[in-house]
Amino acid sequence: MKTALKVHLSLLIVSLIYGATFSMAKIIMPSLIEPYGFILLRVLSGALLFLVVHALFVKEKVEKKDLLPLAVSAFFGVAANMLAFFKGLSITTPINGSVLMLVTPVFVLIFSALVYKERLSWLKVSGIVLAAAGALFLIGGWKLRFEADKVIGDIYIILNALSYAIYLVYVRKLMQRYNPITVSKWNFLFGFLIVLPFGFGELKAVDWSLYGGTEWAIVAFILLGTTFLTYLLNAYALGHASATLVGSYIYLQPVVASILAIVLGQDSLTTLKVMYILTIFAGVYLVSVKRKTRNGN
Predict the structure, then answer these.
(1) What span, in angstroms and rounded, lies between the C-alpha atoms of 175 and 157?
(2) What's the rounded mean pLDDT across residues 138-152?
(3) What is the largest CA-CA distance in the chain?
(4) d(CA 146, CA 123)
(5) Domain ranges in the chain?
(6) pLDDT band (50, 70, 90) for residue 7
(7) Rounded to the nearest 10 degrees, what angle do helices 213-221 and 3-28 cross at?
(8) Residue 120 carries which DSSP code?
(9) Ramachandran bin of 120, using left for φ above 0, alpha for ψ from -120 to 50, beta for the remaining angles
C-alpha cells in the first residue's frame, strides 16, 4: 500500500473515531465522570499504553535537547487543547463549539505558511474554504449565536482550536526525527504532569460501582480508540504529510456524526445534506492535491 494511501486511511479512521466519540461520551459525561477527571483518565491511559508499546516494539531514545520541544508539543497537543475544549463546551452552546472548531484548519494553514514557508496555493485555500463551508452548513452553522454569558466559553473553544493548530505544525519536525510512538509517549507523559492538578479531584470522586457493561465499553473505546489510536495515527500522518492536510480532516468529523445520527434514527438523510457532505470531501481532496513543479515532478 502506498504511503499516501496509508496517510489518508489513517486520517479517515481518526475522523470516524472522533465522530463516534461525541455521542458516546455524552452517555457517561458529566453524569458519571466530570470532564477534567475524564481528561486525566485519558491522558494517564495514553501515557501507560504508549510506554508499554514503546518498551516492547520501539525502544528509541530521544536526545536531551529535544525534551523541551516534546514538553511544548505536549502542552499544546495534549493538555491545553483538551482542557480548553471541555471548559469551553461547559460554558458555550454545542453549536457554537462545533462552528468555532472549524477555524482549526485555517490556523494550521497560516502557521504552516509562517513556519515552513509553505505556499498558500489556490488549491489549498480553495479546499479549506470549500470544506469549511460544507461543514458549516452540515452542522447548522447559521444557528451560531454570540451571547454575553457564552463569550468566555467561545474564547476557550477558539483557544482550543489555536492550541491544536500550533501542535499540528510544531510537532511535525519531531515526527520526522523520531518514531511516532516515541513522540506520543513523551507527549502523554508530559501531558499527564500538566493535566494532573486539574483532574485529580474529579477523577478521585468517580463512583466506579455505577458503571455497567455499556459504560465500561464506552470508557474502553475512548481510552483505546479516541486517545491511543487517534494520536498514534495522527502522529504517523504528520510524519508523511503536511499539517494542513491533517488539519483539514477535522471537517470530516461532522460527516461521521451526521451519518451515525442517520443510522441511529436520530436524523434523516436529505439531498442538501448529501450535497454538503460531497462539498466537504471535495474540499479535503483539493487540500491533498500536490502542485506539480515546472519540470513535472
Answers:
(1) 26
(2) 71
(3) 66
(4) 32
(5) 3-288
(6) very high
(7) 150
(8) -
(9) beta
